[in-house]
């Protein structure tokens, strides 16, 4: 195994399968521009051969670049809550990714955060895309089947420069007893684009997250797309927030949610504080078996010429749709699965084909449990 993949070889076959469910490569970097692996609190590798791109452990980056202090704990405050305070009080863990001015990644970079012990894993990640850079990132978060009482605390700060584009896809494969608390903020400058995709089809006991994009530059764009499944015993308190703080800024928050007995709280908030801004929130949810779907869309306009809208719908699969497909030769189970697949089939604008394929694969794998 190459040095760039060091660490995966130390994990068992079952753990590797869990990681691969998140869309990550564990044997080679084929189809990837770089890789980072942290198991519990141990960082195994941080490497890339792509020109203009750097991946470093956070501690190494802080030592190498004095200017990084201008980004460290600047988007997410240290004292935001007990999660950030816990991380700030400890030795820096996590990674820094820097995409230099004008650089591009042909394939996505992959980062893996794996919880192997009954402990609290904590990370602080910083992603910087300088002017005109384009960066694709896929993050796989998973836990071992042997982990019974662990938790994951995470802080991620994104800085999207002028005319830069960052696409971040996060796929969760946690255990049913794991609690997860990500905290993230993206700062987007003039004509910058931030695309955030979240897939959780193997739910944890609890997920609490509310990522925010602050669109500071004129013409900045943010899109959040979330696909979630809540099984019995799980609670996903998630959502996203966009602050339209510059002329021409636009944001879209889209959620597809399914419960088979668990709880999903889907929050969305768009604040239009500058004229000539647009934002839209959409949440659609299916209740397949008795559970809770609580959609909380908020649109807040403060000036003339901001256009904000929202829509939310919670329901069940229509019987006439099932009967229609059954009349064309499908069994009831096949008809139901086809409808669910169509419901979750969210084509994300601007998403590279490799990342869209990983989202589809995660959905396909989870469908077997419906």
Overview of the structural elements:
By secondary structure, the chain is α/β, with parallel strands linked by helices. It is built from six helices and 20 strands. Strands 2-1-5-7-9-11-14-16-18-20 form a ten-stranded mixed beta sheet, covered by helices on one side. Strands 3, 4, 6, 8, 10, 12, 13, 15, 17 and 19 form a ten-stranded mixed beta sheet that branches. Strand 1 (34-39) and strand 2 form a beta hairpin. The two termini are 37 Å apart. The mean pLDDT is 90.
Order of strands in the sheet with the most strands?
2-1-5-7-9-11-14-16-18-20
The Cα radius of gyration reads: 20 Å
Mean pLDDT: 90
How many structural domains in the coordinates? 1
Q: What is the tally of beta strands?
A: 20
Summarize the helix and strand pattern as letters.
HEEEHHEEEEEEEEEEEEEEEEEHHH
The main sheet comes to:
10 strands, mixed
Shape: globular
Gist of the model:
It is built from 6 helices and 20 strands.
Give the helices and strands, then pairings.
Layout: H1 13-20, E1 34-39, E2 42-48, E3 53-57, H2 58-64, H3 82-88, E4 95-99, E5 109-115, E6 120-129, E7 134-143, E8 151-160, E9 165-173, E10 179-188, E11 193-202, E12 206-208, E13 212-215, E14 221-230, E15 235-244, E16 250-259, E17 263-272, E18 277-287, E19 292-301, E20 306-315, H4 319-326, H5 332-344, H6 353-367
Parallel strand pairs: 1-5, 4-6, 5-7, 6-8, 7-9, 8-10, 9-11, 10-12, 10-13, 11-14, 12-15, 13-15, 14-16, 15-17, 16-18, 17-19, 18-20
Antiparallel strand pairs: 1-2, 3-4
Helix pairs in contact: 4-5
């Amino acid at each position: 195994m190459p040095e760039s993949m060091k660490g995966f070889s130390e994990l068992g076959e079952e753990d590797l399968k869990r990681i691969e469910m998140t869309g990550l490569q564990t044997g080679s970097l084929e189809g990837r521009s770089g890789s980072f692996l942290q198991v519990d609190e141990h960082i195994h590798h941080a490497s890339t051969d792509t020109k203009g791109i750097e991946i470093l452990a956070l501690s190494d980056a802080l030592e190498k670049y004095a200017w990084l202090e201008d980004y460290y704990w600047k988007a997410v405050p240290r004292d935001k809550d007990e999660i950030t305070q816990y991380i700030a009080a400890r030795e820096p863990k996590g990674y820094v990714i820097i995409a230099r001015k004008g650089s591009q990644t042909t394939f996505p970079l992959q980062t893996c955060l794996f919880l192997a012990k009954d402990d609290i894993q904590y990370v602080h990640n910083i992603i910087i895309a300088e002017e005109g850079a384009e960066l694709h990132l896929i993050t796989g978060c998973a836990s071992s089947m042997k982990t019974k009482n662990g938790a994951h605390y995470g802080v991620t700060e994104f800085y999207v420069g002028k005319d830069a584009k960052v696409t971040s896809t996060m796929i969760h494969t946690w255990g049913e007893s794991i609690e997860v608390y990500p905290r993230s903020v993206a700062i987007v400058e003039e004509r910058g684009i931030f695309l955030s995709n979240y897939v959780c089809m193997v739910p944890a006991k609890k997920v609490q997250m509310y990522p925010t994009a602050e669109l500071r530059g004129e013409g900045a764009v943010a899109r959040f797309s979330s696909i979630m499944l809540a099984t019995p015993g799980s609670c996903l308190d998630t959502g996203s927030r966009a602050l339209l703080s510059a002329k021409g800024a636009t944001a879209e928050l889209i959620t597809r949610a399914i419960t088979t007995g668990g709880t999903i709280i889907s929050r969305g908030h768009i604040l239009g504080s500058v004229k000539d801004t647009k934002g839209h929130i959409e949440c659609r949810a299916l209740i397949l078996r008795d559970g809770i779907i609580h959609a909380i869309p908020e649109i807040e306009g403060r000036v003339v010429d901001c256009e904000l809208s929202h829509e939310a719908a919670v329901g069940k699969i229509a019987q006439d749709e099932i009967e229609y497909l059954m009349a064309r030769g499908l069994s009831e189970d096949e008809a139901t699965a086809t409808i669910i697949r169509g419901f979750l089939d969210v084509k994300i604008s601007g998403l590279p084909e490799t990342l869209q394929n990983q989202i589809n694969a995660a959905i396909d794998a989870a469908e077997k449990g419906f």
